[in-house]
Design brief:
Helix content: 25-40%
Number of strands: 21
Mean pLDDT: 94
Oligomer: single chain
Number of domains: 2
Shape: elongated
Strand order of the largest sheet: 13-14-19-18-17-20
Radius of gyration: 26 Å
Distance between the termini: 34 Å
Low-confidence stretches: none
Number of helices: 13
CATH class of the largest domain: Alpha Beta
CATH architecture of the largest domain: Alpha-Beta Barrel
Structural class: alpha/beta
Amino acid sequence: MKVIGLILGSHGTPPDTVDPANPTFKPTLIPSSVKKRIKENILRALPDGVDFEFAEITSESQLFELPEADIYVASPFQNIHDRWFHILYSHNKPIVIMPLPLSEIFSYGDVYYPYFIRDTREIDGALHLPHKVFLSKDESDLSLILKALYVKYRINHTRALCIGEPMYEPFHSWDWGYAMVRAVQEKFGLTWIQMSSENFLKYWKTWAQEVDITEIRESARKIHFSEDEKLRQAMKMYLVLKSIIKEKEADAFTINCLASIILPKLEITPCYALSRLNDEGTVSACEADTTTLLDMLITVYASNSPGFMANPYLFPSDDRLLLSHCTSPTLHSYQEKERDEFDFYTYFDSPTKLGIAPQVLKSPETVTITGISHNLDRMLIIGGKIEANTYFSTCRTQVEIKVDEDVKQVAENYQGRHWILVYGDHKEVIKRTNEVLGIESITP
């Protein structure tokens, strides 16, 4: 993604240059120190990995031949008109307006940009176009806006691979599963790559590399079965999936692991593989759950942390939530590299037969949890703290969470089926991301 910072106009009036005894309006050239500060503010607010250019626009004609960018961040000054913003907006890219405080400089740019915001809100509404104009209050707010726009950019450019038939939620109709696949492409611009269960099984059968189980055996804290073959099959599943993802150039991935022919034919689940792929940065969801994969992309990209896709159990009387599944990542954040320990078990639904599923022992930390509606228009966002790892008769990784919100209200605003958990408090950036994506955030 590329961001261009713009200074629109050439003059302004710093307060310390005003003479109360002679208040004649005498704008001066924008001080170089102010220009430098604007550039530094934008640079500090940029997400990692974003390209940046900086330009000074002193004439209307320059706006017609701007370098291409994905986002323009503009600071308005003297000698401009609100028409300048409309020309900039015709490039059809998001605009973030970043006015300076009055204590720093005064200019007529600060009267024109509100006209532009007002008019484009009305024009976009009349033409049924998305409104892509944002106003930054300060550097912290600019950082949130740019991060949200970066998440949208990444989602729009994500290549998602689905192996097997997509989940047929929301109304237990196979046709609705395919409607969800169309919806994520139409609404959010994902590229969807489909691979049939039959072709996956052919790929599995012809994949003939040697599988070393030393790494997988040594990675676990404890192993609660004795058969090395279970470890070998789990490692092969990881290597096969990683190979297919690389061939398809996919950034995200899901597989119909339970309701397709893959499970009865191979007698193995991909739980370990998905846990590890999420740790490595490939957003990976199980059960070919298209809506949850989108939820995962939003939450993971916004938090820069791998997501734990899970089944939620709600307990309003004591404001507790239990989340469980068998594919939890071990990494806390892609920046900090802290990891949770884990044990290996057989898959919980068939404890004497199928392998393998990691039980990740989650840390007692603050978490953010999200669930998206099946029409992809609403997202439930809640916070809490992990209080315990549990051992009920459900999926292997289980966490009891004390929820910040009223769980009765959470249940009454339930969205989706599976939910996503990430470490840390990321509610604000996820809400801002949803604003950019056109999703209503529900925070009971």
